[in-house]
């Protein structure tokens, strides 16, 4: 089977690697254009492009696939490359460009998407972040037959994955990427044998995983401690949850909620305003929240490293009574 692959970040690279290892012929790889990144703002190749070049796979990087859009020459060149590839199917994973109808209809078997949620829950750009933030106990991979809607196509294969109590987006991302690669290989093998049934998505239970905005990083201490703890894990590694303390933006990477503080304010936080430091020691910084107490155990100053609380306090002394400024 000839497979065009479209994807950009590490999540997509895992799938491309699996397809390549499984022996599928990949006549074309589509990925986002190189973009400046890092302190030197040098052009960086996407994870997918790096893999493709290492294995001699042809790469195209159109800025758009819309024939009537802002970059029609890019779209026309991509169309010629897709036609020349004579692929049976296109596999899409975190590509980052909208696929117009002509792309969806180009391969005989259409376009299959690797989506990191249990559709129809968490359609959209940030399903891993939003599942952790919402406190979901499980997520998974859905292999979907793409249509012109936003993650609305028929489901082909689904596999569930539990979300651990300490899972960050980074950790869950890696497990889902591996699962997605394995599942799409299974889907293509089943399709080749004519045994890949399609299931229409339910109309109930639809939620949208809106793209993560850096502005969301600022912690609202009036929220319950449990909600803040989930957001810290959801925003690790990007964009990082941030609190403003002594006029400095501090990133909070790890925290916990006392078991007896989940449904009621912890005794030491009673009467303290949200964001107030009520305890400070090497084990953690206790912060009063709208409900309950959050103990922050790993922090980072701007330009510094992530540090356990004890090490952080040696370079940034704190004391009970100080308060994180309002978001």
What does this structure look like?
With 327 residues, the chain is α/β, with parallel strands linked by helices. 27% of the residues lie in helices and 26% in strands. The chain is built from eight helices and 17 strands. The strands form four sheets. A seven-stranded mixed β-sheet has the order 5-2-1-6-7-9-10, with helices on both faces. Strands 12, 13, 14, 15, 16 and 17 form a six-stranded antiparallel β-sheet that branches. Strands 3-4 form a two-stranded antiparallel sheet. α5 (127-134) runs antiparallel to α7.
| End-to-end gap | 53 Å
- Number of E-type strands: 17
Assign the CATH architecture of the largest domain: 3-Layer(aba) Sandwich
Poorly predicted segments: 261-265
Question: Count the helices. How many?
Answer: 8
Highest-level CATH class of the largest domain: Alpha Beta
In sequence order, what are the helices and strands, one letter per element? EHEEEHEHEHEEHEEHEHEEEEEEH
What is the general shape?
Answer: elongated
Task: Decide which structural class fits the backbone.
Answer: alpha/beta
Our estimate of the beta-strand percent is 25-35%
Looking at this structure, what is the CATH superfamily of the largest domain? Formyl transferase, N-terminal domain
* Rg of Cα set: 23 Å
What's the oligomerization state? single chain
**Count of separate structural domains:** 2
In this structure, how is the largest beta sheet organized? Answer: 7 strands, mixed
Strand order of the largest sheet: 5-2-1-6-7-9-10
| Helix amount | 25-40%
Question: What is the overall pLDDT average?
Answer: 94
């Amino acid at each position: 089977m000839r497979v065009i692959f479209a994807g950009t970040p590490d999540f997509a690279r895992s799938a491309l690697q699996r397809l390549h290892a499984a022996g599928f012929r990949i006549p074309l790889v589509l990925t986002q254009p190189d973009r400046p990144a890092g302190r030197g703002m040098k052009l960086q190749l996407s994870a997918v492009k790096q893999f493709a070049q290492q294995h001699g796979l042809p790469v195209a990087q159109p800025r758009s696939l819309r024939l009537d859009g802002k970059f029609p020459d890019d779209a026309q060149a991509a169309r010629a490359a897709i036609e020349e590839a004579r692929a049976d199917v296109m596999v899409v994973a975190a590509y980052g460009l909208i696929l117009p109808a002509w792309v969806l209809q180009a391969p005989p078997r259409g376009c299959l998407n690797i989506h990191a949620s249990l559709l129809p829950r968490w359609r959209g750009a940030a399903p891993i972040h939003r599942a952790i933030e919402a406190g979901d106990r499980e997520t998974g991979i859905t292999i979907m037959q793409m249509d012109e809607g936003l993650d609305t196509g028929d489901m082909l294969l689904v596999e569930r994955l539990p979300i651990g109590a300490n899972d960050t987006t980074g950790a869950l991302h890696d497990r889902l990427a591996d699962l997605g690669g394995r599942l799409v290989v299974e889907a293509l093998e089943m399709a080749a044998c004519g045994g890949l049934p399609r299931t229409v998505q339910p109309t109930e239970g639809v939620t949208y995983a809106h793209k993560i905005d850096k502005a969301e990083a600022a912690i609202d201490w009036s929220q319950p401690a449990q909600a803040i703890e989930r957001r810290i894990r959801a925003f690790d590694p990007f964009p990082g949850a941030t609190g403003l303390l002594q006029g400095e933006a501090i990133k909070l990477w790890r925290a916990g909620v006392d078991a007896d503080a989940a449904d009621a304010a912890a005794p030491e936080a009673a009467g303290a305003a949200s964001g107030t430091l009520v305890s400070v020691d090497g084990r953690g910084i206790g912060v009063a929240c709208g409900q309950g107490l959050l103990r922050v155990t790993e922090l980072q100053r701007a330009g510094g490293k992530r540090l356990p609380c004890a090490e952080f306090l040696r370079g940034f002394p704190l004391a009970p009574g100080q308060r994180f400024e309002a978001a």
